[in-house]
Task: inverse folding
């Protein structure tokens, strides 16, 4: 437990669930980052020379020598031991979506029969975890199981409980990335390089461009006891069966509603612990569905924001248990109500401000703003299929295109004002735009944009990639996903678009064109090119699907086929141009995603089959026997014609139950058969396609009959907690 927190337990005496009330008297500014070895701590615990060197490593990517690492490790150890830390671990993000860690004690022999606490620079910078238990997509051959984890000094070290956590990348013996962080760092480097070069057109002082990410994490809470009684939730994170609750979200009374006491105490506890770990939590509220909530921090540099999101997901799960809840991060835990996403608010900034922030005070500022917006759109346009592939998973597939979340087509909403600006620029001609008599008198005819930020009111919730004032909001990311998958693609694609932009502008300048005129010309060309990605209408409508096909956007709706985008020639060329991932790494990632897709549905199908055979059908049959019994008794008791009339209802129910149970039994057999057929396929792509096309649809069609039975069978007999019980925390 965090040392800032003391707890008071209230409510128990009244026979209610205990509520743990965090009792924290300190202000956030006093305990923020208490457990983080940030610059403040470095300054205090490291010699001045070492501190300066570390700043150079973090800010400018200078290389870290072993002597410096040793000095840093010594300072870190001292700080950590003052907090009671006894162990350390490299903390990395393998391609399982979760995080991994292996703890080592600080202990070493003193060779005099005793022990000393040791923590060296070498242990800080590198470890060799066995990579064989992590997905590698064929990169790691079985005879070479070694993997390396290497410290990422840009992500500060932190303490959880008795352990010093060291954020690391994770690569194979042969140097290929086996994680999300390694390619993310390369993507961020690529976008920094490309965006800095373009930003210098407008301001030669710009030295560095940073990519920012502000995620909004949605989640559900359910009571721990009810959760434990649902094997499907326990094993797959979602309910595979369950009839709608009569009341769910139709009254719109949950969104931004008041937060139940037990939940708000959970949130408070979570926030305090998150703040102590340096996660700048800011916003919390109820979401649309009952029991659904959201947490959002202030945005941060993307690499750090990704770490913090991984950290908070773990923290949420742990803290929830203390409060008698289970935290569900699955994208669609309950059918019929909204699922959970993780909006990724993304922008680029320099130390002088946000590049996507418009309008500027001067025409040059405005042109800078428009350039970065348009080149982002170019990136999204050229790689819309790949962006979709970056967020798709077996679990997120339930959400996309389901009229509650972004459709399974990537497009961008710009809002009226920005659309007008782009249109004006596209349709203007240079003679009007420029007064070429003298460079200084250049006037840029971009309509005056009011000071009030663009489109804060004009929101379009159906757009997967919406411009929201000073950033783009990528809304299709799944709630349990590692944001890095989307951020790697987005940042690399934007880096590539900016690089290409600069090449074309420079060519025009070299041919003698004025710089601003050259920029305007290329921007204008690009506005025309990327037009198909711009869509401000209703993304949920049928017409949009047709229109998107006409525009040549990716409209693939099968998850395994969406993943093909990882290995198209365009994708491979882009990642290699930007030096972010090799073809081999992309093929591996594609294979791992396919494998994960298959496994998820495989597990669901098995649990679902078991539940049908062991829970649903036996219980329905038992209830049916009771009804049959009752019909017999009525017959014994009443005269024949009266008995017939009185038992008609039950006879009808008996028939219905039979028809549902026989459908279920027959189709569970088909489900098993479909799995067997799919399982023998050797090719991961074929197998995932088979699971998508033949196994997943059976889960849905059988579920319909199970849910019907739930409505018929005596509530006392029904073995699983129902939606109406799970969805309303009191
Ligand atoms: P909403 O739900 O209305 O979209 P929230 O306040 O819940 O808004 O979340 C907005 C998120 O966007 C926050 O994490 C915030 O820090 C982040 N954000 C704001 N400005 C930027 C920006 N320029 N770049 C990246 N993220 C940003
Ligand atoms: Mg948002």
Result:
């Amino acid at each position: 437990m965090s040392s800032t927190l003391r707890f008071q337990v209230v409510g128990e005496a009244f026979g209610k669930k205990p509520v743990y009330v965090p009792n924290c008297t300190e202000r956030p500014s006093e305990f923020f980052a208490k457990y983080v070895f940030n610059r403040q701590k470095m300054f205090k615990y490291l010699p001045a020379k070492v501190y300066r060197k570390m700043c150079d490593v973090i800010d400018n990517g200078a290389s870290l020598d072993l002597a410096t690492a040793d000095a840093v490790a010594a300072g870190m150890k001292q700080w950590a031991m003052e907090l009671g830390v006894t162990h350390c671990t490299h903390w990395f993000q393998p391609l399982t979506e979760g995080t991994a860690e292996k703890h080592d004690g600080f202990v070493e022999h003193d060779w005099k029969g005793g022990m000393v606490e040791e923590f060296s620079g070498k242990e800080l910078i590198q470890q060799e975890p066995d990579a064989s238990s992590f997905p590698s997509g064929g990169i790691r051959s079985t005879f070479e199981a070694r993997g390396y984890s290497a410290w990422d000094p840009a992500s500060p070290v932190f303490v959880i409980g008795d352990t010093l956590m060291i954020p690391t990348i994770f690569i194979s013996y042969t140097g290929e990335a086996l994680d999300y962080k390694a390619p993310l760092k390369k993507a961020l480097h690529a976008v920094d390089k490309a965006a800095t070069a373009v930003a210098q057109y407008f301001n030669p002082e710009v030295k560095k461009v940073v990519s920012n990410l502000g995620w909004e994490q949605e989640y559900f809470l359910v009571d721990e006891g009810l959760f434990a009684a649902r094997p499907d939730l326990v094993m797959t994170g979602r309910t595979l069966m369950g009839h709608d609750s009569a009341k769910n979200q139709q009254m719109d009374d949950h969104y931004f509603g008041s937060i139940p006491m037990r939940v708000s105490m959970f949130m408070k506890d979570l926030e305090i612990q998150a703040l102590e770990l340096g996660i700048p939590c800011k916003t919390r509220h109820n979401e649309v569905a009952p029991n659904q909530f959201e947490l959002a921090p202030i945005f941060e540099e993307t690499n750090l924001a990704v770490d913090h999101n991984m950290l908070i997901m773990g923290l949420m799960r742990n803290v929830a248990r203390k409060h008698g809840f289970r935290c569900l991060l699955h994208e669609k835990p309950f059918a019929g109500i909204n699922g959970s996403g993780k909006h990724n608010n993304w922008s680029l900034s320099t130390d002088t401000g946000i590049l996507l922030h418009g309008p500027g005070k001067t025409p040059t500022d405005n042109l800078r703003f428009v350039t970065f917006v348009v080149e982002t759109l170019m990136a999204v346009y050229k790689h819309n299929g790949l962006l979709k592939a970056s967020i798709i998973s077996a679990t997120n597939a339930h959400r996309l295109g389901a009229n509650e979340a972004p459709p399974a087509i990537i497009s961008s909403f710009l809002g009226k004002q920005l659309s007008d600006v782009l249109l004006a620029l596209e349709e203007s001609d240079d003679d009007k735009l420029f007064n070429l008599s003298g460079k200084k008198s250049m006037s840029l005819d971009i309509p005056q944009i009011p000071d009030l930020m663009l489109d804060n009111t004009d929101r379009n919730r159906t757009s997967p990639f919406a411009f929201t004032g000073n950033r783009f909001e990528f809304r299709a990311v799944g709630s349990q996903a590692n944001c890095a998958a989307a951020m790697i693609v987005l940042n690399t694609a934007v880096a590539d678009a900016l690089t290409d932009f600069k090449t074309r502008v420079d060519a025009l300048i070299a041919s003698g064109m004025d710089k601003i005129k050259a920029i305007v010309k290329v921007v204008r060309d690009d506005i025309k090119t990327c037009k198909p990605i711009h869509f401000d209408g209703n993304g949920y409508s049928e017409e949009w699907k047709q229109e998107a096909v006409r525009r040549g956007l990716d409209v693939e709706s099968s998850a395994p086929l969406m993943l093909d985008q990882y290995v198209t020639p365009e994708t491979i060329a882009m990642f290699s141009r930007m030096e972010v991932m090799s073809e081999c790494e992309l093929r591996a990632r594609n294979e791992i995603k396919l494998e994960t897709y298959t496994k998820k549905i495989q597990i669901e199908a098995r649990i679902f089959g078991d539940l049908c055979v062991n829970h649903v059908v036996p219980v329905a049959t038992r209830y049916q026997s009771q009804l049959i019994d009752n019909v017999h008794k009525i017959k014994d008791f009443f005269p024949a014609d009266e008995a017939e009339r009185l038992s008609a209802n039950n006879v009808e129910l008996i028939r219905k139950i039979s028809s549902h149970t026989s459908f279920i039994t027959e189709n569970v057999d088909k489900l098993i058969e479909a799995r067997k057929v799919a399982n023998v396929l050797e090719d991961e792509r074929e197998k995932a396609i088979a699971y998508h096309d033949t196994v997943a649809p059976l889960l849905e069609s059988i579920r319909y009959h199970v849910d019907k039975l739930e409505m018929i069978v005596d509530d006392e007999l029904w073995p699983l907690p129902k939606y109406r019980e799970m969805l309303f925390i009191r």
